[in-house]
Amino acid sequence: MAGIVVHQDKIPDLSAVAALCPFGAIEVNDGSVLINAGCKMCRLCVKNGPPGAFELVKERRVAIDKDRWNGIAVYLDQTDGEIHPVSLELLGKARELAGKVGHPVIALLAGAEMGKAVAEMRHYGIDKLYLYEHPLLEHFRIEPYAAVFEDFIKRCQPAVALVGGTAIGRSLAPRVAARFRTGLTADCTFLDIQENTDLDQIRPAFGGNIMAHIRTPHNRPQFATVRYKIFSAPERMASVSGEVMRVVLDETLLGSKIETLSSSRKAPVKNIEDADVLVVAGQGIQRVENMTLLEELSQKLGGMLGGTRPVIEAGWLEPRRQIGLSGRTVKPKLLIACGVSGSVQFAAGMSGSDKIVAINIDPGAPIFKIAHTAVVGDVCEILPSLLKRIKAGEVAQ
Amino acid sequence: MKIIVCIKQVPGTTQVDIDEETGVLKRDGVESKINPYDLYALETALRLKAGCPGASVTAITMGPPQAEQSLREALMMGVDDVMLVSDRRFAGADVLATAHTLSQAILADGWETGVILCGQQTTDGDTAQVGPEIAEFLGIPHAANVTAIQDFSAGALTARVDLPATEEIIRIPLPCLVCVNKDIHTPRLPSYTLKKASRGRKVRMVTLADLPDSDPAHYGLNGSPTQVIRIFPPEHHVEHERWEGDPEALAGRLYDNLRAEKFLA
Ligand SMILES: Cc1cc2nc3c(=O)[nH]c(=O)nc-3n(C[C@H](O)[C@H](O)[C@H](O)COP(=O)(O)OP(=O)(O)OC[C@H]3O[C@@H](n4cnc5c(N)ncnc54)[C@H](O)[C@@H]3O)c2cc1C
Ligand SMILES: Nc1ncnc2c1ncn2[C@@H]1O[C@H](COP(=O)(O)O)[C@@H](O)[C@H]1O
Question: Engineered SS bond to B131: which of A240, B118, B145, B249, CB 3.0-4.6 Å?
């Protein structure tokens, strides 16, 4: 049995061991130490406990033949034939990973009328594009889309499957990963690949200021989701390349118990992901009244307002404006963080920005570690003064 | 008709920190609470039940013995039945092993049809994947990102789903699994009367031996395809400059900088 094994005789002091585990998974029961279901395998007890007291015993698994799994696959997320930009970003990353291990880049596209989308996607360096086109695939419904993905995996045997972290991808990827009894790492912020095709996946974890490096060493394909704006989109190439493989699935496989009664386009609102400039409010702006200062600044800069989770929870901004792990990921040309502490969950959603200016009163605020320009001072004093100068500058022109 | 809600106990504080020198994870306060997103699932379940005579709501959680507390809170909100899925062999479960365990527990409970509700995501795992994986293990359809349930009758749910570019109304027959979004309904507060009424109540515990698939290889770390190789504090390699001084001077410097870089005309 794999797991943490406790060597009771190597624990000199029972009173101190429970505190080793931040998840409360170490129990002391009638003088013996036990690991309960709260264990997250972070192995801090192995590292920091009495020498030899906690041991990670690994199970010997049946080795799989990794050479039989070839290719870096990308799911092309589409609505009415429009490809979500996160899919392009994943194609760029897939090309990079594929280059390291000499694999092809394979893509999966499913939908009703995909002619235009296919033509466009041929400009992004895909080696093989598998196209599943059928009227039954017009709307996203989980069973037929999962069936298509399953067929695609069986056909291509890719080593890696990358899926965008959209509402569709986050519903589809787990479904298919579970079907193949394989691992899926959500919201990766960094991806690399080993020579043996093991995917190195890094994401913030345990709901804390911690990054976890995750691998799926005994299963294929290795599924990962990545959110929009984490990676950069590759340049569109002038020429077309790659093969298009059209797959016709038996209609019985495309059936669904779900009926789409209506589907309406959401009003085209400008999203913070698409803004070039973002002014971001953190709890440090103190009062909701100060939002008007930020609003004014963002207007002057032709940008948009964003916020940290506490600001959204306070109702100072609408939920679509939340930046971070449980909000959105942004990558603007300029981001001005006002009174933001810079937790890892927040940073996960914005650290790729071209230029980060942070205004914070605390010289030790973590945001200063990721800011290009660290402005140590009171945002409630600096912003009014800055706005005054901007207005004076406008008058002078 | 059985309505099942999957809830998870999560740390009450989100402040986890890592000591850069020793690599020790520091977590202040050991308090735990129900994953806030799961409160919306609980509220939705209780409302579905109210409109469906004869229905009952069961809250289930997989976790350590102390997770019983979150089930007690669910009882105080008004669920009919609770189930704690706990066994040492579930330790170290990733998404796949968690979803397998929960689906097995649901089957062990004699579930055939009805609705399973999940929250959008957890505040500690934060993957939003456990729900869809449970549905796959049970072989039933699911819908995620559900923002409203408009109708629940004639063996089907009519739900509003928020997709990347569209908003769809779908009809999904039972049995099915639904992951509800935050804010679908405002969760009710625990009731004092229910608290008193459920005080002495025993919480049903399900262990590996009670599950239809009792092969330990499918649970906990054994059943988890993903492995945490290491954990580390985030590293930053940013060229940065630091400005200190009085607010007026700082504002002036920022103004000049924004102009120089053409962010301001
Ligand atoms: C699983 C999980 C997911 C999460 N997801 C997100 C997410 O998506 N997005 C997100 O933002 N958070 C998220 N969080 C919460 C996150 O951990 C932090 O709590 C949050 O980002 C802090 O927001 P803040 O910086 O606004 O507030 P605080 O941490 O309270 O920081 C306020 C800052 O303002 C400074 N300040 C105070 N007064 C002034 C002043 N007058 N002038 C200048 N500076 C001042 C302070 O020095 C401080 O640094 C998540 C947490 C968890 C556990
Ligand atoms: N250990 C667990 N016990 C019960 N339900 C869970 C558990 N983990 C996750 N869930 C359910 O799955 C949803 C998504 O969780 P996650 O994938 O961890 O973000 C949660 O909102 C819960 O409804």
Answer: B118
